[in-house]
Design goal:
six-stranded parallel sheet, three-stranded parallel sheet, 15 helices, about 10% strand
Length: about 325
């Protein structure tokens, strides 16, 4: 049996979510922060880019045709990170996540053999996160998508312990996908907000999970890091050195930081075959999954070709192309 080709990094736009927050206090401030972080030149490109790709993110038939053109059999669909809205109050956040979960499930239900989905949880209200995760699972989704932090909270915050425990207990997938970088205006030119900001946020968030002991306390957690985990996998040697050399670095986690990479999953979207080979070396071929960031311009239009360019052994190529994801998503092999 041949495993299907599975893309675990594909996005959905949800007008239902945006209509809920439209005009609410806090939205204008959040948009202003996003504008400062990206800068005017990037914003001028972003608008037309998203509009041109809108049908692929809202119309399931258009999505499926694009998948056929890419040679992708199954997508794991997650809401666009622009829908996080971590500024929202508790009542709005609960409504937002429920609406996002239900709309994502409805989109995937149009082609249940080819689309699987992830929902949202309100990281800014940790007391709601477990309930939102349960709702996503009740909707038939496989888990949830989260950012690298919430305002005033890192993923190592003890307030998230019930969420991590529930995700591990249920086997839910947690897709770590940053939105925005706290380096703010330092990255407001040349689209550094994305090209530097995203891999930075991935590295910081994963480091918090490793060094705080979250992964020690929840060894069954099934977490997928977008963008190949950012800078961390290729610079994990520095983390290992700190863990060996300094008692403050080693205080929170039981094992060498690099060992935790083999407990996580990573998508293949690193834009460089040499970096992809290094990711496979440090994390293991069984921990890397095909990812495209469909259909954004920072994604891979042909993710299978990008994977093939790494020149991996055939068994590793097949595992990353779909075998690993088929097992993780519990897909029936054809």
């Amino acid at each position: 049996m041949t495993a299907p080709t599975v893309d675990v990094h594909a996005h959905l736009l949800l007008p239902e979510v945006e209509s809920l927050v439209d005009g609410l206090p806090g939205l204008a401030e959040a948009r202003a922060l996003d504008a400062r972080r990206n800068g005017p030149a990037s914003l001028a490109v972003n608008g037309p880019m998203v509009r041109e790709r809108m049908p692929r993110m809202t119309d399931a038939a258009v999505r499926l045709a694009a998948m056929d053109a890419q040679g992708v059999d199954v997508q794991l669909v997650s809401p666009s990170p622009s829908h996080y809205h971590y500024w929202a109050d508790a009542e709005t956040a609960e409504k937002l996540c429920r609406r996002a979960n239900e709309a994502t499930a409805a989109h995937c239900a149009t082609a249940p053999d080819r689309l699987r989905g992830l929902g949202l949880v309100p990281l800014q209200h940790p007391e709601q996160a477990t309930r939102a995760l349960d709702h996503a699972l009740e909707c038939g989704l496989l888990g949830v998508e989260i950012s690298s932090h919430a305002p005033g909270r890192e993923l190592s915050d003890p307030a998230y312990e019930p969420f991590w425990a529930r995700a591990a207990q249920t086997g839910a997938l947690v897709f770590l996908h940053p939105f925005g970088c706290t380096l703010d205006e330092r990255l407001d030119r040349w689209y550094l907000s994305n090209s530097v900001g995203q891999p930075t946020e991935n590295a910081v968030a994963l480091s918090h999970l490793i060094f705080s002991g979250v992964l020690d306390r929840h060894p069954d957690l099934r977490l997928i890091a977008a963008h190949g985990g950012g800078y961390l996998p290729t610079h994990i040697g520095r983390a290992d050195h700190a863990w060996r050399a300094r008692p403050d670095a080693a205080a929170g986690c039981a094992h060498l930081p690099s060992s935790y990479l083999r407990r996580l999953h990573f998508d293949s979207l690193v834009h460089d075959p040499h970096v992809l080979r290094e990711l496979v070396r440090v994390a293991g071929a069984d921990r890397v999954l095909l990812g495209s960031d469909f259909p954004f311009d920072m994604g891979a239009d042909d993710p299978v070709a990008a994977l093939r360019a790494a020149g991996l052994p055939r068994d590793a190529f097949d595992a990353i192309r779909g075998g690993n994801a088929a097992a993780l998503l519990d897909l029936t092999l054809a």
